[in-house]
Amino acid sequence: MSNKKYIFVVGGVMSGVGKGVAASSIAKILQFHNLKVTAVKIDPYVNVDAGTMNPTEHGEVFVLNDGYECDQDMGNYERFLGKSLTKDSYMTTGSTYLKVINKERALGYKGKCVDVVPHVPLSIIEQIQNAGKKEKADVTIIEIGGTLGEYQNILFLEAARIMKNKYPKDVMTILVSFLPVPKKVGEMKTKPTQYAVKTMGQTGLSPDILIGRAEIPMDEKRKEKIAFSCSMKKEEIISAPDIDSIYDVPNNFLNEKLDKIILKKLNIKKTRKNTKKIKEWANFIKSSKTTKQKVKIAVVGKYFDTGDFVLSDAYISIIEALKFSAYKNHVGIELDWINSKKFEYTKTTKQKVKKELNKLKNYDGVLIPGGFGKTGIEGKINAIEVVRKNKIPYFGICYGMQLASIEYARNVCKIKDATTYEIHPKAKNKIVTLLPEQEKLMKEGNFGGSMRLGVYKAKVKKNTLAYSLYKKENISERHRHRYELNMEYVPTLEQHGLHISATSPDGKLPEIVELSKKDHPFFIGVQFHPEMQARPLSPHPIFTGFIKAAKNK
Ligand code: GLN
User: Would the CB of 62 count as within 6 Å of ligand 1?
Assistant: First the structure.
């Protein structure tokens, strides 16, 4: 394809209606046409990246291969597209301004007065085009965060307007809107959407296609009404009702012929549907629906403060990774979220806590995800002790691996005061420690983007549980942590039966710990974040092993 194409996806009426899923599903249906597609996500906040935010603010912090810390939506794009994205695919108001300011400081504007307009939108456009170029993408999908009518995303919409004006045949805009069905009225209302289109007009843009999110499908009459009042054609209005699985949205879009209308509007000719790709995806959806047996998994964590919504957002990649591996094992999963504070003893609650801990025995598997700081860590350590002693399959991720090592050091190696530098920097027995280069960064107060971040290679030892899962020696996994298992304690841990089954290629940093089969059916802790590379069609082997062990319990 000669000309590169761009699709801007913007949201109207309200946030949280699934603009990200709609955008990634658009990407997916274009992949079904054998097009090379990439995505750019724009978040209008001022943070330069998502790394310094608490997960209760904006959900999980997702890490790319190149170590960039970004919004959880990037995980969504990687899972739908089945490929890894780079730093170019993510921008915020903060990162954009920082780029412009750094360029100005480096005399990059050659003495010109640097203005908000056009220089900021032009910088945004430059990054969008770079993202597409680097991936050699035929089509780049750009999701502009926020909702039409806000102040925050106005410069990004201006970038879309400039691009559309310059390349009218190669750029299009899709509005993802919401259509309420008020209970008392009992009818789907289009007015908020009409207003959203009007608001879009104020930015100099109008929708080429409108995706109508709603609880129920949109009928023909509603489509006609929107088309009539918004100067659109009926076939440009797409119905997108709630459905059980987000991965089924591309299929719904195909049924609505969204692919055809996009190709027509962008003048993309001579593509052929890849039936093999469509079938693979359909089979994955089918396997997610046909499972009867369920495994019961407990996730013991701490970012549960603000109710169910945040809870699933803070651990979204873990939930998805568990699902993919469950389908591969032909089972479903029942997830329970347990706040680890429940497992912490106080003088008055001893019996109650014991009872809570005992309940863990009812689970087929227990997972402790990543985390930071001291809240709830003693509870997590208590949980690990129960799970280890009762041979319940255990999967510890990052902090979950570090705490498993501390539990082992305390209760098996009898190092009673074993701890981590993160909580007790002056303690004697720091099983988890801070390397000198990290210590220096901390002293300088250099917290943003300074952890061990992104993809690193590791070597898996043969004849281990880890090797039986990966079936290979050389692996590469994404990291996001500051502390490391302390090498000085490795011989003691090994002697007592907690084995290091993978290290960094130079052997200096432990990457996986595990118990041998004779001691426990499945007990593994990984320093990295395998959930970030789990994809629908290629589930992660450790998650798959964990679910298999849970199924066998
Ligand atoms: N807090 C730990 C560290 O920084 C673990 C981080 C994590 O679980 N992602 O090393």
Answer: no
**Rounded distance from Cα 54 to ligand 1 centre (Å):** 13
Degrees to nearest 5, angle at CA 72 with 70 and 74: 70
Which of 534, 453, 529 shows the shortest CA–CA distance to 66?
453
Which residue among 53, 63, 372 is best mutated to probe the pocket of ligand 1, counting the most ligand atoms within 8 A of its Cβ? Answer: 372
**C-alpha span between 238 and 268 (Å, rounded):** 20
pLDDT tens series, the chain, 553 aa: 568 999 999 999 988 889 999 999 999 999 999 999 999 999 999 999 888 887 777 788 999 999 999 998 999 999 999 999 999 999 999 999 999 999 999 999 999 999 999 999 999 999 999 999 999 999 999 999 999 999 999 999 999 999 999 999 999 999 999 999 999 988 999 999 999 999 999 999 999 999 999 999 999 999 999 999 999 999 999 999 999 899 999 999 999 999 999 999 999 987 788 899 999 999 999 888 877 789 999 999 886 655 554 466 788 999 999 999 999 999 999 999 999 999 998 877 888 899 999 999 999 999 999 999 998 999 999 999 999 999 999 999 999 999 999 999 999 999 999 999 999 999 999 999 998 888 888 888 877 778 899 999 999 999 999 999 999 999 999 999 999 999 999 999 999 999 999 999 999 999 999 999 999 999 999 999 999 999 999 999 999 999 999 999 8
List residues with catalytic annotation. Answer: 398, 529, 531
Helix (H, G, I), strand (E, B) or coil at 381: helix
Strand order in the sheet with 510-515: 332-339, 294-301, 365-368, 394-397, 523-526, 510-515, 498-503, 452-460, 474-481
Q: Sketch out the chain's domains with CATH numbers.
A: 5-283 (3.40.50.300), 291-552 (3.40.50.880)
Mutate-to-test residue for ligand 1 from 480, 485, 509, highest number of ligand atoms within 8 A of CB: 480
**Protein residue with its CA nearest to atom 7 in ligand 1:** 370
Cα(415) to ligand 1 centroid in Å equals 22
Centre of ligand 1 to C-alpha 464, Å, is: 24
Ligand 1 atom 3 nearest Cα: 481
Q: Which helix (H) or strand (E) holds 264?
A: helix 258-265
Strands (E) located in 340-451? 365-368, 394-397, 419-420, 430-433
Nearest CA, atom 9, ligand 1: 370
Please state the atom number of ligand 1 nearest to the C-alpha of residue 372. Answer: 1
Q: Is the CB of 213 under 6 A from ligand 1?
A: no
Locate the ligand 1 atom nearest the alpha carbon of residue 480 and give its number: 9
